[in-house]
Design goal:
Blueprint: H1 7-16, H2 19-24, E1 30-32, E2 35-38, E3 50-53, E4 58-61, E5 67-68, H3 70-77, H4 82-92, H5 106-139, H6 143-152, H7 157-162, E6 166-168, H8 174-181, H9 186-191, E7 195-196, E8 204-205, E9 210-216, E10 222-229, E11 237-239, H10 255-261, E12 267-271, H11 274-282, E13 288-290, H12 298-307, E14 310-316, H13 319-332, E15 341-347, H14 353-370, E16 373-374, H15 375-384, H16 392-408, H17 413-426, H18 431-441, H19 458-468, H20 490-502, H21 508-514, H22 519-528, H23 539-568, H24 573-585
Parallel strand pairs: 12-13, 12-14, 14-15
Antiparallel strand pairs: 1-2, 2-3, 3-4, 4-5, 6-9, 7-8, 9-10, 10-11, 15-16
Helix pairs in contact: 1-21, 3-4, 5-6, 11-14, 16-17, 19-20, 19-23, 23-24
């Protein structure tokens, strides 16, 4: 493994990346003066407080306080770790990641090497296993059984290839035999959920006699599998267990394929099974995903709403399907904001999306999706079914039952509409009644939110201005002028001055990246978000004035200390000379 990603490469990457283009591809931005704005993708709000600066290559939300550069945005929005975010941004900018020599201790280098290599080996092994399953669909002795099954489900060879569908015969160690022969570690296959350790310490295949569906992450890497039996054996579907690279509550089957098929996804349909996703794609609905055998989790819903604005949950109409829909709705409530919607479709008894689209076709199925039940209607119908609507007591209980769900729902037009509907249909409709519901539904509303004010000091102002305008370093004849000053914050200011002198064309995003994951980084991010109201054309004068104040304040404080020493007769000859120089200068 090469060393850490080169600092120079990160600077070059941030210099080439355009944060406005990057963010706009995920969160549509509107021009607002010299900056761009949108409703924050990281919290719910009615009016936009999320600002992106093209000049600074920096984003900041004045509502929730989230901020950062292009790398930070990818880490937050796409849920990537630092290295993956760098690689993603590099791919976006058509750049090859450059690494430098590793200067860590030998022990730390070995640890880094092991972690990195393990991760790469895991992805590579899972890809090899996936290719093996695909090959078995072509060469296995009983391949015709599998092929006939897929044809019977209406799948074409092209669709099978697009989703990387494979097959494994019903042998005890069909997969293990091959990979053990190729020198693959048995333990790694066990760790990745592909094999099970027997009592005799001889691993055997987890998946046997099944059609195999590879599960890919956001970058298209195989991280797990789902296997379906060809007959009526139980369990019908078998899924990979949780592993170090696969966390089913965070992933969605088919999302990678949906993104590959649609450059501009507008909506996603959530279904329950792998075959539902593939069958829908076969018939033109290539924007379906599956929640991998779990109720749709909050993490999955966040991923969905970060990809599209309209999510439709398509579940069975039985009790289990409606319970799954209810859990999905509860998880989605805190994420719903204006412009985003969650809807529900319940297929008739005895049907599933696979059978429905095969019998009715794409146009009829999309018509069903267009008529999907809105979240608000689903919420009303579900809660109304639990009370006696013919009695005053029942209607009163209904109003009370809405409270916990309204409390989860952020302020929005949807929330206001639901509250008005409750008041008009089940309450008195009076202003007092509305006020009561609003108060109960938004317990946080009346709490005072105090934002700490940043105290204006010459050091903070100089650093803030230098972060915004790195070229200001050119206005100083000597950047070492503050080296002897011991005032808090000056050491950091000197460090930034040196960075700016080394690269006066630096952008704000590059300077902040240098201090990522440090205590200084947190301080600088706060200063970057500080509204000091200094216009760009006045920045140089204010910056130089701040430097001068720093020097003057230091000289005054130093003179006072020396004079105090003089009064006590404890001055050294060097200090006497220093005091004389200060007094002469003044």
């Amino acid at each position: 493994m090469a060393g850490r990603i080169s600092r120079q490469f990160i600077d070059d990457l941030l210099a080439r990346a355009d944060i406005v283009e990057l963010v706009d591809a995920r969160v549509p931005l509107k021009k607002a003066g010299k900056n761009y704005q949108a409703c924050c993708p990281f919290h719910n709000e009615k009016s936009p407080s999320f600002t992106v600066s093209q000049e600074k290559q920096f984003y900041h939300c004045f509502g929730c306080g989230v901020h950062g550069n292009a790398i930070s945005f990818l880490m937050e929005f796409d849920r990537l770790d630092f290295v993956d975010a760098i690689e993603e941004l590099a791919a976006h900018c058509a750049m090859e990641v450059v690494r430098e020599e590793n200067n860590a201790s030998p022990a730390e280098q070995r640890r880094q090497q092991q972690i990195y290599q393990q991760k790469q080996d895991d992805y590579e092994l899972m890809n090899q296993v996936s290719r093996f399953y695909q090959q078995q669909l072509k060469i296995a002795n009983d391949k015709e059984t599998a092929i006939n099954y897929l044809k019977g489900r209406g799948l074409s060879g092209e669709m099978v290839k697009r989703f990387g569908i494979g097959y494994i015969s019903d042998a005890w160690d069909g997969m293990m035999k091959l990979f053990s022969a190729n020198g693959q570690a048995n333990q790694q296959l066990v760790d990745l959920g592909m094999a099970i350790q027997s009592d005799k310490n001889r691993p055997y295949d987890r998946f046997r006699g099944r059609i195999m569906f590879p599960i890919r992450d956001k970058r298209g890497r195989v991280i797990g599998f789902g296997g379906r039996v060809l007959g009526d054996e139980k369990p019908k579907y078998l899924n990979s267990p949780e592993t170090r690279i696969y966390h089913k509550g965070h992933e969605l089957y088919g999302l990678y394929e949906a993104k590959q098929a649609n450059k501009n996804l507008e909506r996603l349909v959530v279904v329950e099974g792998y075959m539902d996703v593939v069958a829908l794609a076969q018939h033109g609905i290539d924007y379906a995903v599956a929640s991998l055998g779990t109720s749709t989790t909050a993490e999955q819903l966040q991923t969905l709403f970060r990809t599209v604005k309209e999510v439709i949950c398509c579940y069975d109409g039985d009790r289990a399907g409606r319970d799954a829909a209810w859990r999905a709705m509860e998880n989605a409530l805190p994420l719903i904001r204006d412009g985003f919607s969650l809807k529900f479709v319940f297929v008739p008894d005895g049907e599933d999306p696979d059978s429905l689209i095969r019998s009715q076709g794409q146009q009829a199925f999309e018509h069903i999706l267009d008529q999907a039940m809105p979240l608000s209607k689903f919420l009303f119908e579900h809660l109304m079914s639990q009370v006696d609507m013919s009695s005053i007591e029942g209607r009163s209980a209904l109003v009370e039952s809405f409270q916990p769900y309204l409390a989860k729902l952020p302020d929005s037009v949807l929330k206001d509409a639901i509250i008005n509907d409750i008041a008009n249909n089940f309450g008195t409709g009076s202003e007092q009644f509305l006020a009561k519901i609003n108060k109960m539904a938004s317990p946080e509303k009346n709490r005072k939110k105090t934002k700490p004010n940043t105290k204006v000091t010459p050091v903070r102002l100089a650093i803030a201005l230098l972060l915004e305008h790195p070229h200001l370093v050119k206005s100083l004849e000597d950047i070492t002028i503050l080296q002897s000053i011991t005032v808090p914050g000056v050491a950091l200011l000197n460090q930034i001055l040196l960075l700016c002198e080394q690269n006066p064309e630096s952008k704000t995003s590059q300077l902040l990246e240098y201090f990522r994951d440090t205590e200084h980084g947190k301080q600088l991010s706060k200063l970057m978000c500080w509204q000091h109201h200094i216009e760009a054309d006045a920045a140089e004068d204010v910056f130089l004035d701040s430097i001068e104040k720093l020097l003057n304040n230091f000289v005054e404080q130093r003179a006072e200390i020396l004079l105090q020493k003089a009064r006590t007769g404890k001055m050294t000859q060097q200090e006497k000379q220093e005091l004389q120089a200060i007094l002469n200068a003044s």
